[in-house]
Structure to design on (605 residues):
C-alpha cells in the first residue's frame, strides 16, 4: 500500500515537472515569437506617418527599445553582424519578471493592462466551454446508451449518421447554418452577442456538436463492450431489471474512458471556442485574440491570450489525469 | 474493403480530378464579380448559384479543391517525413535522445492545442498560404513521430534486426533498410487522417482570416464571406455548398483512414 502511494506521488511529481517545463516553453514561445513579427511593431500600430518622437515614446513605454534576448546579432555600420551579450537586462527577462507579478504588459492600442482585458473576457469563454461540454454530454450519453443497447436497429443507425455529421461538419459550417435556421428564418434566437441567457444556446450547441458526436460513438462502443462482460450476466441472473443493469452497472464502468476524453476535449473546446466566438460575436478570449489582438496587431494582447488559453488547456489536462487515476483503480496501481 | 472506404476513395478521386482539371471544369472565372447577378439561386447556368458579388459558386468550389488538396498534400508529406526521421532516431537510439524527443518535445506539442499554436504562429508571422503550410507542418509532425517511435521500438527487437546487427550492418542501414520498411505501415493510416485534419485546419484558419487571403476561393474564405446576415438571408446556398465540400472531403479521408486501419490490423479484420 505504501509503495503504491509513493508511486502515485512520484507520478504526480513527474506530471508537475512536465507541466512546469511546458509552461516555461509556452512563455518562451510567445515572447520569442513576437520578435518574428515582420517589420516593426511600432510602425504596425502607430502607422507610417507617426513622428520619430511618437515612435520613441511608444518603444520606451512598451520596452521595445530594450534588447529582445540575452544576446543578439545586430548589424553594425558596415552591415556586418556581431555577437552582443546583453545579460539579464532584456525583454525576455522583463516579460517573465512582470508575469510573475501577475502583469502581462499594456495593450499596444489603448494602454489598458492586458491582464484586465483578459480577466474581463475569461468568464465568457469558460462559460461557453462548460455549457458546450454539458450540451455534448446531455446529448451523447442517452444517445450512445440507446444506440449501444439497440445495436443494429434504426435508432442505432440514425445515431451513427448524426455522429458522422457532427464529426465531419466543422463548427464554422454548423454555426452559420444554425444562425440561418434559428435567427434568420425562425427568429427565435439572436444571431450574435451575449446579452440574454438564451444567447448561449447557439454557440454552445455549435461548439459542443463535434464533441457530442465523438462521445456518442465512445459511449456506444463502451456500452456494447461492457454488455458482454461477466458481471452483466451475473446482474441479469440476479433478476435486476435491464434498466438497473444498464444505468447502474454498465454505464458506471463504461464511462471511465469517456471521462478521459472529456478532460482532453475541454482543451479542444477552448481552442475551438476561438472559432465559435468569432461566429457568434461571443465576447470571450477567442474574440479578444482574433479581433483585438490579431486584427489590430496588438501583439501584447496576442501574447496574453495565447498564454492564458494554453495554460488553461494544460491545467485542464492535468486535472483530467488526476480524476482519471482516481476513478480507475487499475491505473492507480500501475 | 468495406463500402465506406470505397465511397471515400471515390470522393477523393473526384476531388483530385476537380483539382487537376479545375480550369477546364469551372465554367466561370473564379474572381469575376457581377453585381447584377448576385445572390442567384442554383440553376442550370449557375449550378451552385452565385454569391454576394455575383461570383459563380460552383467554379469557386472547384478551385477551392485545389487549395485544400495542395495544403493537405504538402502538410502531410512534409510532416510525415520530419516525423518519421525524428521518431525513428528517438526509437532506434533510445537513451538521452529519446528522453529529450519523446519525454520533452512530444509533451510540449501535445500540451498545446494544435489550432492555437497555428493561430499564434500565423498571428506573428502574418497570413498567407506558405506561412499557413509552415504552421500546420510544425503542429503536424508530432503525431507521425510518436507513431514511428513506437513502431521502431517494437521492430528493433525482431530477430532479423538482430541478425543484421550481428552481420555488422551500420546503424543507418539497419534503420532505413531493415526497420523502417517494416515499421511504416500504420503511417499510411495516419497520413490519411492527417489529410482530413489539414484540410479542416486550412479551412478554419482561412475562415478566421489567418490563412489564404480573401479573393482566393478557399472553402474557409467562402464560408466566412457567406455568413453575414444579409448574405445568409438572400443566399444560404453560398454557405451550404462550400460547407458540403469541406464535410465530404474530411469524411472521405476519415473513411479511407478507418478502412486502411481495419485492413492493416488482422485482429479487426476478423471481427
Amino acid at each position: 500500500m505504501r509503495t503504491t502511494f509513493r508511486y502515485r506521488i512520484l507520478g504526480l511529481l513527474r506530471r508537475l515537472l512536465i507541466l512546469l517545463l511546458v509552461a516555461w516553453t509556452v512563455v518562451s514561445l510567445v515572447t520569442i515569437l513576437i520578435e518574428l513579427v515582420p517589420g516593426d511593431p511600432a510602425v504596425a500600430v502607430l502607422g507610417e506617418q507617426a513622428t520619430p518622437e511618437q515612435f520613441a515614446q511608444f518603444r520606451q513605454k512598451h520596452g521595445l527599445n530594450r534588447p529582445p534576448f540575452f544576446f543578439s546579432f545586430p548589424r553594425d555600420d558596415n552591415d556586418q553582424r556581431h555577437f552582443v551579450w546583453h545579460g539579464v537586462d532584456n525583454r525576455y527577462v522583463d516579460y517573465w519578471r512582470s508575469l510573475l507579478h501577475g502583469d502581462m504588459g499594456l495593450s499596444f492600442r489603448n494602454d489598458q493592462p492586458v491582464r484586465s482585458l483578459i480577466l474581463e473576457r475569461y468568464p465568457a469563454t469558460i462559460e461557453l466551454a462548460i455549457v458546450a461540454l454539458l450540451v455534448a454530454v446531455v446529448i451523447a450519453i442517452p444517445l450512445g446508451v440507446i444506440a449501444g443497447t439497440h445495436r443494429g436497429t434504426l435508432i442505432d443507425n440514425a445515431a451513427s449518421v448524426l455522429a458522422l455529421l457532427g464529426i465531419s461538419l466543422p463548427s464554422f459550417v454548423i454555426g452559420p447554418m444554425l444562425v440561418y435556421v434559428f435567427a434568420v428564418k425562425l427568429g427565435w434566437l439572436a444571431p450574435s452577442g451575449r446579452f440574454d441567457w438564451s444567447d448561449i444556446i447557439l454557440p454552445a450547441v455549435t461548439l459542443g456538436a463535434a464533441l457530442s458526436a465523438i462521445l456518442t460513438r465512445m459511449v456506444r462502443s463502451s456500452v456494447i463492450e461492457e454488455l458482454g462482460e461477466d458481471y452483466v450476466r451475473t446482474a441479469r441472473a440476479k433478476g435486476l431489471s435491464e434498466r438497473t443493469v444498464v444505468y447502474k452497472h454498465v454505464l458506471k464502468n463504461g464511462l471511465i474512458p469517456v471521462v478521459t476524453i472529456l478532460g482532453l476535449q475541454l482543451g479542444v473546446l477552448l481552442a475551438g471556442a476561438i472559432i465559435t466566438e468569432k461566429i457568434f460575436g461571443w465576447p470571450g478570449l477567442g474574440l479578444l485574440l482574433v479581433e483585438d489582438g490579431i486584427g489590430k496587431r496588438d501583439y501584447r494582447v496576442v501574447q496574453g491570450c495565447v498564454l492564458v488559453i494554453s495554460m488553461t488547456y494544460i491545467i485542464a489536462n492535468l486535472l483530467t489525469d488526476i480524476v482519471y487515476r482516481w476513478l480507475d483503480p487499475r491505473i492507480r496501481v500501475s | 474493403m468495406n463500402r465506406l472506404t470505397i465511397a471515400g476513395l471515390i470522393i477523393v478521386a473526384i476531388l483530385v480530378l476537380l483539382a487537376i482539371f479545375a480550369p477546364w471544369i469551372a465554367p466561370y472565372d473564379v474572381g469575376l464579380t457581377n453585381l447584377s447577378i448576385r445572390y442567384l439561386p442554383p440553376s442550370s447556368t449557375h449550378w451552385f448559384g452565385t454569391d454576394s458579388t455575383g461570383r459563380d459558386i460552383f467554379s469557386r468550389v472547384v478551385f477551392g479543391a485545389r487549395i485544400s488538396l495542395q495544403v493537405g498534400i504538402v502538410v502531410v508529406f512534409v510532416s510525415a517525413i520530419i516525423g518519421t526521421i525524428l521518431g525513428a532516431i528517438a526509437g532506434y537510439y533510445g537513451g538521452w535522445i529519446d528522453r529529450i524527443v519523446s519525454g520533452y518535445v512530444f509533451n510540449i506539442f501535445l500540451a498545446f492545442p494544435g489550432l492555437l499554436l497555428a493561430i499564434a504562429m500565423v498571428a506573428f508571422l502574418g497570413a498567407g498560404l506558405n506561412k499557413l503550410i509552415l504552421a500546420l507542418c510544425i503542429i503536424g509532425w508530432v503525431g507521425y513521430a510518436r507513431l514511428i517511435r513506437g513502431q521502431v521500438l517494437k521492430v528493433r527487437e525482431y530477430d532479423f534486426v538482430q541478425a543484421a546487427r550481428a552481420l555488422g550492418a551500420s546503424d543507418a542501414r539497419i534503420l532505413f533498410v531493415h526497420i523502417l520498411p517494416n515499421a511504416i505501415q500504420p503511417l499510411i493510416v495516419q497520413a490519411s487522417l492527417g489529410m482530413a485534419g489539414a484540410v479542416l485546419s486550412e479551412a478554419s484558419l482561412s475562415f478566421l482570416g489567418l490563412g489564404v487571403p480573401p479573393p482566393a476561393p478557399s472553402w474557409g474564405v467562402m464560408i466566412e464571406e457567406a455568413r453575414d446576415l444579409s448574405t445568409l438571408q438572400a443566399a444560404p446556398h453560398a454557405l451550404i455548398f462550400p460547407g458540403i465540400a469541406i464535410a465530404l472531403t474530411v469524411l472521405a479521408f476519415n473513411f479511407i483512414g478507418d478502412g486502411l486501419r481495419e485492413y492493416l490490423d488482422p485482429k479487426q479484420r476478423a471481427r
Q: What stands out?
A: Chain A touches chain B through 51 residues (CB under 8 Å). Chain A has a mean pLDDT of 81. DSSP finds 13 helices and two strands in chain A.
